[in-house]
Amino acid sequence: MKATVLVRPKDGILDPQGEAVGGSLRRLAFPVTQARVGRLVDLELDTSDAADARAQIERMCAELLANPLIETVEIQLEGDD
Amino acid sequence: MKATVLVRPKDGILDPQGEAVGGSLRRLAFPVTQARVGRLVDLELDTSDAADARAQIERMCAELLANPLIETVEIQLEGDD
Do A37 and B36 touch (CB under 8 A)? Predict the structure, then answer.
């Protein structure tokens, strides 16, 4: 099963990379009022059960993929929009 | 209008960060067969027209946000899943 994990800085957490991107886009004359930069992890999991996959990914986030103090996590499972 | 730009390394492009993440997850006993790491940019745009927003974002990707030689781009507009 394929899944995508979206990791974003929480609201209120300073995001210098996002500020730099937003500033650059505005200098290029794009009408951007805010930009925030996060990361994504595409995973291929050796399970075909969506509930199991989601539970595994939540543990992965807690143990490795994200910092719950400053980041939010969104899990997108394939065929599950 | 809010939008999210997902930037991923193309298939076949080496992704050492993804390999490190995959290896770490396997060492933690997660059943991960592949991991690829990309980035995301959440944008707030000063337009309410979806077609205009998408066109602007495509230009942003070409000019700043992504490298078309090695990266693919997916644009998600709010309320447009």
Answer: no
Q: Looking at beta carbons, which residues of chain B come within 8 Å of A26?
A: none
How sure is the predictor about A79, in pLDDT bands with cuts at 50, 70 and 90? confident
- A30-55 residue pLDDT tens: 999 999 999 999 999 999 999 999 99
Say how many residues make up chain A: 81
Chain B CA closest to residue A79: B81
Find, among B6, B21, B33, the residue nearest to A65 by Cα: B21
CB atoms within 10 A of CB A36: 21
Which residue in B has a C-alpha nearest to residue A74's C-alpha? B40
CA distance B73 to A22: 18
Q: ipTM of this predicted complex?
A: 0.92
Only one residue has tokens 């951007």, namely A32
In this prediction, residue A81 carries a pLDDT of: 53
Nearest to A47 among B8, B31, B39 (CB): B31
- Identify the band that residue A80 occupies on the pLDDT scale cut at 50, 70 and 90: low
What b/e readout covers A8-18, taking b as 16+ CB neighbours within 10 angstroms?
bbeeeeebeeb
